[in-house]
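Milestone M4 deliverable, item 7.
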Amino acid sequence: NTEMPFINETTGLRYKPSNPSIVQTADGYMVMVRGVNCGNDRRNWWSFADDGSFRSRYIVVHVNRTFGITTRHELTTQHVKREVVSRSRPNEGLEDPRMVLWEGRPWFTASSYDQSAHNAISLVLCSMAEQPDSNNEIRVLSWTPLESPDPLREEKNWLPFVHEGTLHAIYSLGPETVVLRMHPY
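Output delivered:
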């Protein structure tokens, strides 16, 4: 069941699923599904939250080789140490995760609205636990802000991959391909 968490239990309104990311595992696949508390009409965005904020929640689902769901847990960032640099937009949390398996565990890149001193959307690299904690949640274990080739640019959707045991990201494919080496430690 990939039912999303409630935005408001009284109204029954739930986060809307969007932007999945998937990686192959030894016994099937791991899928991260983003849930959003907002909507749009192709011109304007609006929040369903009472306070007007834009939030995302994430569900991590393991599926077997025939795509049957074997586990489902919410991803949490509350335990990871990180510094909030800027908070001038109504967006909270991470956006558009892109997963990769590296060094035997899951990692992902994601956009963040609170890591740039220039108030630009920036990218972070996070590792996450493979198993749920005592609250039945998957914890983000590390959070590393990534340096952009252009620190004033709004950054989104870097695509992580492993090459010769080293973690990289495709930053751009045009007009020329730009590949960045990521250093999470």
